[in-house]
Specification:
alpha/beta; single chain; ten-stranded mixed sheet; PLC-like_Pdiesterase_TIM-brl; signal; phosphoric diester hydrolase activity; PLC-like phosphodiesterase
């Protein structure tokens, strides 16, 4: 028994030592999440962005899912293919009436049609350091898992996977049941299943996923627009919950209580220097009191990160995992080890051949 206690104390010591970066220390690392892989550094939600997330030492790869007309789970943020991110190349087949595909909703396009798009040639104006990878295609979730597993043979990376369901405009995406069933089938067959957090602004999908599989970790995403309606009616994003029915002296406390009521393990609020920012110390304290973790998004300011760490958050979702990881080290906190650049880029080359 004494030996067991000693071993546990040694592991905990590893977890708080900034100098130690042993691979086995990954579970004790502060959760630096690469938002869309790390869109500040490479084109978002693509194999290159996840490659750089691994190279930069992200603890968790955060990404978004859509579902195509033919039911395939793909990794992309937007409901609609926008011209600022993707370009048409050629139709998937001759005389395709749906071509051009830019401007169409993912739910109305097949995987074959999506695979013709070049979504790697355009640097986003608000991310001037973003690496482009011309010719990059939208990947399926399975393709992303396969690529990362090539570099991450020990399955140490964590995942935060979001369902992009539009609760306000349900005709723009496939429905909750299709999303949850199709995503869960891929989760369940993956060696990463136990490392996956399932997140959504649409809390209906969190409730449905928990009903399908109570073992899945869920994270309740929230921003001002999904929590509060202009006329103070019940928001369509909160799974039928009325925040007025929850106790609390502030919106943040009510949200923590509401997220806890749907068995969410994590609360993920918007955190910026703006009047509509939701993250507060009071929210963090209440979530912790209820046994939930708090991982705000999308934090690209180290001043904001300083404040969040003082409040005791458990992780940070950022477009710049390399910079936030460096900051975490400076705070004397444990970070996840980086993946070998040569190996990751070799896997990227292998899995980017269309």
């Amino acid at each position: 028994m004494m030996l067991l206690l000693f071993a546990i104390s040694c592991l905990l010591a590893i977890g708080v030592s900034a100098a130690s970066q042993q691979p086995l220390a990954r579970p004790f690392a502060f959760d630096v999440q690469g938002h869309r892989g790390g869109r500040g550094n490479a084109i978002e939600n693509t194999l290159p962005s996840f490659a750089w997330g691994l190279i930069d030492g992200a603890t968790t790869l955060e990404l978004d899912n859509g579902v195509t007309k033919d039911g395939v789970v793909v990794v992309w943020h937007d409901e609609q293919i926008v011209a600022s991110k993707c370009q048409d190349t050629a139709p998937a087949f001759s005389d395709d009436a749906a071509f051009p595909y830019v401007g169409k909703f993912i739910a109305n396009l097949t995987l074959a049609q999506l695979k013709t798009l070049d979504c790697g040639s355009q640097r986003q104006s608000n991310f001037p350091l973003q690496l482009t990878y011309p010719g990059t295609r939208i990947s399926t979730l399975q393709e992303v898992f396969d690529f990362v597993e090539c570099a991450d043979t020990d399955h140490l990376i964590r995942w935060n996977i979001e369902s992009k369901i539009d609760a306000a405009f349900p005709d723009r995406t496939v429905g909750v049941d299709v999303f949850v069933k199709n995503q869960h089938a891929i989760f369940d067959a993956s060696p990463y299943k136990d490392a996956i957090t399932y997140q959504s602004f649409d809390w209906r999908s969190l409730i449905a996923m928990k009903k399908l599989d109570p073992t899945i970790i869920t994270s309740a995403l929230v921003e001002h627009e999904t929590a509060v309606t202009p006329d103070n009616t019940v928001s369509p994003w909160l799974g039928g919950l009325n925040l007025q029915n929850f106790s609390g002296s502030s919106l943040g406390v009510k949200l923590a209580n509401a997220a806890h009521s749907i068995n969410a393990s994590i609360l993920s609020p918007h955190a910026t220097y703006s009047p509509k920012s939701l993250a507060t110390k009071e929210m963090v304290d209440q979530a912790h009191y209820l046994g939930m973790l708090v991982k705000p998004w999308t934090v690209n300011s180290l001043d904001m990160a300083d404040e969040l760490l003082r409040w005791g958050v458990d992780g940070i979702i950022t477009d710049y995992p390399n910079m936030v990881r460096r900051w975490v080290q400076q705070q004397g906190r444990q970070v996840a080890p980086k993946y070998p650049k040569r190996r990751v880029l070799a896997c990227l080359d292998e899995h980017s051949r269309w």
